[in-house]
Amino acid sequence: EVQLVESGGGLVQPGGSLRLSCAASGFTFSDYSMSWVRQAPGKRLEWVSVISWNGGTTNYEESMKGRFTISRDNAKNTLYLQMNSLKSEDTAVYYCAKGGNGGMDYWGKGTLVTVSS
Fold first, then answer.
1. CB 22 within 8 A of CB 6
2. Which of 26, 44, 92, 104 is positioned for an S-S bond with 97, CB 3.0–4.6 A?
3. Under 8 Å CB-to-CB from 104, ≥6 apart: which residues?
4. What is the C-alpha to C-alpha distance for residues 83 and 85, in angstroms, rounded to an integer?
5. What pLDDT tens digit does each residue of the chain (117 aa) get?
6. How many CB atoms neighbour CB 71 within 10 A?
């Protein structure tokens, strides 16, 4: 059974940082691209970032370039999202997903990030 469990969310002040983690199990993690997506209150799902199976290729939504960094540790079956210079508009539930541009077929339950003073 595929499981994706996000952690690391919380309340942070504008300009602060958080590091999200996603623990994966039930599939061969190193075989797949992985993605982060988010959903702000009352808004649609928004793609955040993707990383290739070996971490060699990454891509970001334009507004997050230079502030967010996606990474992975295939030995630990874990996906990460380092978020710096956080803004109030980054407030959302963040989900990790198995897959990338070819489609995402499994999702975690998400972790809430609240950026507020």
1. yes
2. 104
3. 35, 37, 97, 98
4. 7
5. 999 999 999 999 999 999 999 999 999 999 999 999 999 999 999 999 999 999 999 999 999 999 999 999 999 999 999 999 999 999 999 999 998 888 898 999 999 999 999
6. 14
